[in-house]
Amino acid sequence: MPHTSHTLRFAKPAVLGGAALAAALLLASCSGSAEAGGGSGELKVVATTTQLTDFAGQVGGDDIELTGLLAPGGSAHHFDPTPADLLVLGEADVLIVNGAGLETFIDSAIEASGFDGEVVTAADGLDPELLREITAEGGEAHDHDHDHAEEDHAHAADEADAHAHDEAEGDHAHDDHAEEEHDHDHGDVNPHIWTSPRNASGMVREIAAGLGEADPAHADDYAARAEAYFQQLGDLDTWVTAQFERVPAEDRVLVSGHDSLRYYLHDYGIEFAGSILPSFEDNAEPSAADIDALVASIKEHGVKAVFVESSMSPKLAQTIASEAGVEVVDAESLYADSLGAPGDGDGDVSTDTYIGATVHNTRVILEAWGVAPEPLPASLQG
């Protein structure tokens, strides 16, 4: 498997310039702290989020040398690349980003590192109008029969495939990156697009196409691995759909730490009663009026529990839950902005993978609602 290096700091993004940048990169080079490892001749790939790093590893296998910028528990909302990160980025052949306005640090990081490879924007594998529509709906519950769920899953993959084949060679090159980032800075789109396994399929197809363009000699291998992973994502979607169909519609109501699960809630008919932080970001500050409104919403909707994402402190959630008279689920946090650390998991799954984290999230929600999850299919275990 490709070696993965993670680095993270929590601070406001800053661009190093001139002599300071040169000195920082020299120091990082001498220390070797950002070495990604891997064999010579491999495609050097850098991915921003932990989910994208997992997707890239699933598709790239041993044909890529993979580095993930964000560490488990980290959040792209307040990420600041270190000099070691910039060194690795400057040497990369491919940079994989989420897009949809998530990585506000990426333009300055590219400029500071001197990166001139190809940029693959995973959000390009999805329909932007559909993302806007779901964002505008506010995460309210929708009735979806299973045939429709499979249709959505296939649609995401088909959209991505069509997009990949329509692009001219080199469209993701660094020279065009600034214009692309402007095009994909969707202030009206919730950037947590990966939380839906159906969206994940389109993102993975975009990544496979991008790696194939950058490394044509292994394009068939990337495509084959992607197809195998699509089967797992489809099995995941089928399992999650079946679990929530067992919960009465009036009980499928959720409050989260911040507005991070919008697409997951939409796909599985779960009503969004609000979030502790009234924002897409996990570092916003709620006002007293925001807190009062959320407590009122919790009581009005009969919410059973408040869930906290792994990238957030549970303190405010505990205060709100206490005031509303409900449980706060913080001992087993939901993995939204980040995957878990290696070794974390529920026995038959590991939360350091996208599939494992999604299974974990589903189980935690069900159990808080008093519903025992059904066993996983063999294809999702391990």
Short account of what is shown:
The chain has 382 residues and is of the alpha/beta class.
CATH superfamily of the largest domain: Nitrogenase molybdenum iron protein domain
- The CATH architecture designation of the largest domain is 3-Layer(aba) Sandwich
Roughly how many Å apart are the termini? 16 Å
Q: Please, what is the average pLDDT? A: 79
Rg is: 20 Å
Count the E strands.
8
Widest sheet, order of strands: 2-1-3-4
Helix content: 40-55%
Query: Which sheet architecture does the biggest sheet show?
Result: 4 strands, parallel
Q: Encode the helix/strand succession as letters.
A: HEHEHEHEHHHHHEHEHEHEH
The first-level CATH class of the largest domain is given as: Alpha Beta
Structural class: alpha/beta
- Please work out how many helical segments DSSP would assign: 13
Q: Quote the CATH topology of the largest domain.
A: Rossmann fold
Number of domains: 2
Describe the structure.
The protein folds into 2 domains: 18-239, 3-Layer(aba) Sandwich (Rossmann fold), CATH 3.40.50.1980; 247-368 and 376-380, Nitrogenase molybdenum iron protein domain (Rossmann fold, 3-Layer(aba) Sandwich), CATH 3.40.50.1980. It is 45% helix and 12% strand. It contains 13 helices and 8 strands. The strands form 3 sheets. Strands 2-1-3-4 form a 4-stranded parallel sheet, sandwiched between helices. Strands 5-6 form a two-stranded parallel sheet. The two termini are 16 Å apart. Residues 1-40, 139-157 and 159-186 have low confidence and may be disordered. Belongs to the bacterial solute-binding protein 9 family. Residues 140-197 are annotated as: Disordered. It is found in: Cell envelope.
